[in-house]
Each structure stands twice: as C-alpha cells, then as structure tokens.
Design a protein that fits this description.
This protein is of the alpha/beta class. Helix content is about 25%, strand content about 30%. α8 packs parallel to α9.
C-alpha cells in the first residue's frame, strides 16, 4: 500500500506558545506533498520534520487569518533562495491574490520559478484539484471570514498481481497491465484462467478531511461521511462554549459529535487555545462522545 501520511507542523491557534506553532500540515500521498495552511514558523517545522522542500507542489490556504497564512510569503522567498524552478500552486480565497502579489513584488524579486494562484470559492463543495491518484475537495465552513476545509480522496487503485500465479502460468510481463485492468489469460492449450485467480483485490481508497476554524455545523457530517481520518479544530472545551460561539470556533465535544455523526475512522483534535497548558482535558471531553479521538502535536506523523 502506498504511503498516505499527515505531517503535523503546527496545531496551535492564533497565539503561538512555547509548545505549539500556528496551523500547518503536509499531506503525503503516493509520493506527492500537499501543504494545508502555512502559519508562522512553518519553514522551521518543515526542516524539523525532514520534509523535502522541493517535493512540495501545492499549498491550500483555508482562510485569511494570520495564523493560517503568515508563513506563506517567507516560504516562497526561501524556495527562491534554494533555487526552486518548479511551479508552486497556491489555492486560497481570492482576496489573498492581490496581497500575495504585492508581497512578492516587495520581497521576492527575481524568483526563478512561478507561483500560480488558484482562487477558491469557500462557499461551495467542489473538486479544486485532481490528478491520476487523488482529488481535493472544498468543505464550506462557518467562520468569521470566508473559510473552507479540504477533503483529500485517494482514487481507486488497480488490483494486486499474484506473482505466484503469473509464474505458474508463465504469463509474460507484457500482459501484466492487461491483467491488472481485468483481462483473463488463455494459456497455450486454450485454457482460460479467470482474472480473479491472477490478482488479489485492490486496496480500499483512503480519505482525509481537514476542518479548519469553524463554528459547529450540525450537518457538516454529510460532506465527510465515512472518511478514514478527520482533523477538526477543537479550540475550546465545553466550559468555554459561549466563547466558541462568539469567535466562531468549536469545542472538543462538538468536534467529536461531527466525527460520530459522520462515522469516521479516527478523529484528530487541534487548533488549541493557548489557555490550555495541557490539552488532555479536551481529549477526555471528546472521547466521551467519540472514543477514537487523538490529540495532534508538532512533528507527529499520522498514517491514514
């Protein structure tokens, strides 16, 4: 099975602390790297995580609050100093484009690579990126500014070849792709060997949903039903539910409710308020509703 990993670079909220960095993650899927949000300090965390800068092709920004995008211009400049030549694709709310262009004109003169901007409609649920191995969809959220999450879906893969059967029937390697595509094999004596004897079933496609800053949305579960892993902000505990409503954030219990209603495989909590020296209180709160809950932490790697 090809790697599908989530690298946590930062899982704090607006106020950086000595423990938590601002929001940023890297999704690693089938050899490609995709960044979600790029808060202050992301470059340092990339180095600590030993993630290769050159393999990062796309950055997805959920919304235009500083703790989710202040690190972007610095990272773009660093890529230039490292001699990057490959295009960097930035997917973000349209309002970022003129600001990013002005910053680049001021600080990134002479870049030898292109930064291609892709405006994102945060109000619609749509596929905004697709290649041969995955799709990325937007998840409309409810925050103080236009905001959306992102849903990474792996495309179905082909079945696995049974090498023992290929060798037994002396099937030439030139026919492997046909067999993977569903073809039977006819041997020299005219016997037809059915495809299901030559392969084992393909791996189930995996999925990861990133729900950034948002007020609790009762029907959010409908868009992320059945995903393998869900990251959902849990800025506050239930004792601060009024503050969560005021600032359009969620509690750990609300995040767990979304996970339970969506029937996800696993819930990851993050975007912790700096008021919590230890986030275990949030974990306990969430696990009472959805037991398969974990806390995220910097430099953590989660396998999907």
């Amino acid at each position: 099975m090809e790697p599908f990993r989530i690298h946590i670079l930062g899982c704090g909220s607006a106020l950086p602390t000595l423990h938590h960095y601002a929001s940023s993650q890297v999704v690693e899927m089938r050899g490609k790297l995709f960044m979600i949000d790029c808060g202050e300090g992301t470059q340092i965390q990339l180095r600590r995580s030993r993630i290769r800068f050159t393999k990062l092709g796309h950055v997805f920004i959920s919304h235009l609050h500083g703790d989710h995008c202040f690190g972007l211009i610095g990272m773009i400049c660093t890529f230039g100093m490292l001699g990057r030549t490959a295009t960097l694709h930035v997917h973000a709310p349209a309002a970022l484009e003129p600001m990013l262009k002005a910053q680049m004109e001021m600080f990134c003169f002479g870049l030898e690579y292109q930064v291609e901007f892709h405006p994102v409609d945060t109000t619609s649920h749509a596929v905004i990126y697709e290649d041969k191995s995955l799709t990325v969809e937007t998840i409309p959220l409810n925050h103080r500014v236009p905001c959306c999450g992102f849903l990474f879906r792996e495309k179905p893969s082909q079945p696995h070849i049974r090498r023992d059967m290929i060798d037994f029937y002396k099937i030439p390697t030139s026919q492997i792709l046909n067999i993977k595509a569903g073809a039977d094999w006819t041997d020299d004596e005219g016997n037809v060997i059915p495809n299901d004897r030559l392969v084992t079933p393909a791996d189930e496609p995996r999925s990861y949903a990133y729900c950034s800053d948002t007020k609790y949305i009762p029907d959010l579960h409908e868009l992320i039903r059945g995903v393998n892993v869900l990251y959902h902000e849990a800025t506050y505990g239930e004792e601060n539910i009024e503050r969560a409503r005021l600032y359009y954030h969620s509690t750990a219990a609300q995040a767990a409710t979304v996970a339970r209603d969506a029937g996800v495989g696993r819930l990851l909590l993050g975007h912790y308020s700096a008021r919590y020296e230890k986030e275990e209180v949030l974990l306990e709160e969430a696990r009472r509703i959805f037991p398969e809950t974990s806390l995220t932490d910097e430099n953590q790697v989660i396998n999907v």
